Amino acid sequence: MDAFISGAKAKEARIAKQSKTTEGAAVPWVEKYRPRKVDDIAYQDDVVAVLKKCVSGSDIPNLLFYGPPGTGKTSSALAVCREIFGADGYRGRVLEMNASDERGIQVVRSKIKEFARLAVGTTRSDGKPCPALKIIVLDEADSMTGAAQAALRRTMEKESKTTRFFLICNYISRIIDPLTSRCAKFRFKPLAADVQKRRLSEICQKENVDIADDALDALIRVCEGDLRKSITYLQSAAVSFRGATVQVGDVDRMVGVISDDAVHLLIKACRTGKFENVQTAVESLRRDGFPAYQLLSQVFDIVVVDDELNDDHKAAICDKLGVCEYRLLDGADEFLQLMDLGCTILAQYKTVNA
Amino acid sequence: MALWVDKYRPNQLSKLDYHKEQAEQLQRIVASGDFPHLLVYGPPGAGKKTRVQCILRELYGAGAERLKIEHKTFQTPSNKRIELSTVASNYHIEINPGDVGIYDRIVVQEIVKSMAQTQQVYDSGSNRDFKVVVLTEVDRLTKEAQHALRRTMEKYTQTCRLILCCNSTSKVIGPLRSRCLAIRVPAPSDQEVVDVLNQVCRKEHVVLPPALATNIAKKSFGNLRRALLMIEACRVQQHPLKDDQQVVEPEWELYIRETAQLIIREQSPENLLKVRERLYELLTRCIPPSIIFEKLLKELLISCDSMIKAAVVASAAEFEHRLNRGSKHIFHLEAFIASFMAIYKRHLEETLMAL
């Protein structure tokens, strides 16, 4: 008997130890501070209001969340599921599928349909009541093929007694119309600076990060409303500058913003009106490994406010910027596109001086 | 006998020759035990891979250097069997999903996910409870494959960290970028290349004349790998090294230069036919078409009047873009040559008329 008890104790101790190691293990802050409850979701007030009603027992519609990355779409969907079904019942009642799962038309026909068909009870595993529903979360739905989306249409309607669908995507234009019309749509806005700042300062406080106030502002500015990005960078900054206060310059270097000097180097070379200068400038930018895509947006920022150019010139340059951006996204060579852009800017400055 | 490039590759962050500040930062990140997903980018030959290997060694000790090559086979939904070779140690696995073309999504779904789901066996050698998946040439991944990575990266952070390598982040989708700490590895400056060359030569007991060193540094365009290969080629060619020694350039570069000269010499349909043969020759030797474009453009620009340079660049940019959209490379290369010939000839005639 004693042996049995001590054995159990040892087991307990082992479990305790295990849970301790997982707690102490390095969890990225993005996961650590991911909102667990609907209430915790920052900034998306109208979405939260609707979701709260869903949790408190009113009818749940099919939902479609869309918006830029890092605004809390996946977090909200999972938080709702967790609150409705509890952490335990969650597993049996929620089917989460994302782009890392095979979800061609075959999967929609078999797996999703099978799951949608199952009926479930109205009590959770802990005895509390919950709606007799299952939820299928389709994350990154915009990467599903049109055929697979079309296969969902009738399934969504037919199984509406037992199943709700949460679709999550970045671009609503890539979801076919018949699906969007079956869902309540919610747009997730990029987070406002002050909301982000509050979140980040909270995390800073909990994790003992020493960061200068203007550095925090700089961080928020470059992340453009993407909270996940800013938390990732905050953690990296905290780790790599441990013990010292994080300054503005550190943040800039860390997040891969191209320094203003480098961008001005290109503009200046265009101003000289010499083709060779443009070529050397582009080559040196490439040697420094600056991504051309980022460069385009920063060139845009400078050109738009340049007093030397009149509206026609700016229009010509912006036109080329658009063409280059499109080509880059298609996978065109960066050097050639930047040269092309450089030539256009050069030509515009030339007409100014003439 | 190993090439000098491999022989003198630094294997610890503290031994890196340049970007020391960044190396220290990486060291602190590794030492803290907390380790974000990394996105390492920079021009070729700048030392991205070297840094990744150093990080792995720093994380797991010498065990990360015992590598074995594995061949993994998997099946596509259309029942095609595909083989992919991976390089792995006990702690990490290195995959180049671009090797399998359009099936890269399945690689990510099958191999990366199964790697990520299995937990690292705890052993005393490493005190990490995650393993690392290194994906190279991420910019060659299709959009679908990149989407497939998104949730995998978040869901399995407990057991797995990713290091993504690429030349430029332009082709990496935003959601992936927002999940990673981006690390830019700029190419070394010419002076830094010279320093490294000197150091290697000293270890090899070869006397390196300064003029040759600067010449090689200039010709390598900040590509350290290329510089080291060049110096070794010089050493094989002639020992001891001489000040004014010819630096061996790759044959295909000379070939492109000759092609450019041919184009400048005469602009006619017959000549275009000759050029086409040379282009085929280059393509069959597996020179990537975008590199042909770039080199050819640079060579052509040298002998162009500054009036038409902008037009030439614009047409090169346009046709190179089309080449990426299309599938038959020769069409677009030839279209560029033809349009260059037209621009060049028209300009020549106009200047003659003006006289």
Structure, explained:
Chain A: It comes from Plectus sambesii. Chain A: It is found in: Nucleus. Chain A: GO terms for molecular function: ATP binding; ATP hydrolysis activity; DNA binding; DNA clamp loader activity. The complex is a heterodimer of chains A (354) and B (355). Chain A is α/β, with parallel strands linked by helices. Chain A has helices spanning 2-24, 29-32, 45-55, 73-93, 105-117, 146-158, 177-180, 193-207, 213-223, 227-240, 248-255, 260-272, 275-287, 292-304, 311-329, 334-353, and strands spanning 63-66, 94-97, 134-138, 163-169, 184-187. Chain A folds into 4 domains: 1-32; 39-187, 3-Layer(aba) Sandwich (Rossmann fold), CATH 3.40.50.300; 193-255, Helicase, Ruva Protein, domain 3, CATH 1.10.8.60; 260-353, Zinc Finger, Delta Prime, domain 3 (Up-down Bundle), CATH 1.20.272. In chain A, helix 8 packs across helix 9. Chain A is globular. In chain B, strands 2-3-4-5-6-1-7 form a 7-stranded mixed beta sheet, sandwiched between helices. In chain B, helix 4 (104-117) links the parallel strand 4 (92-95) and strand 5 (131-135). Chain B is globular, with a radius of gyration of 24 Å. Chains A and B meet through helix 10, helix 13, helix 14, helix 15 and helix 16 of A and helix 2, helix 4, helix 5, helix 6 and strand 7 of B.
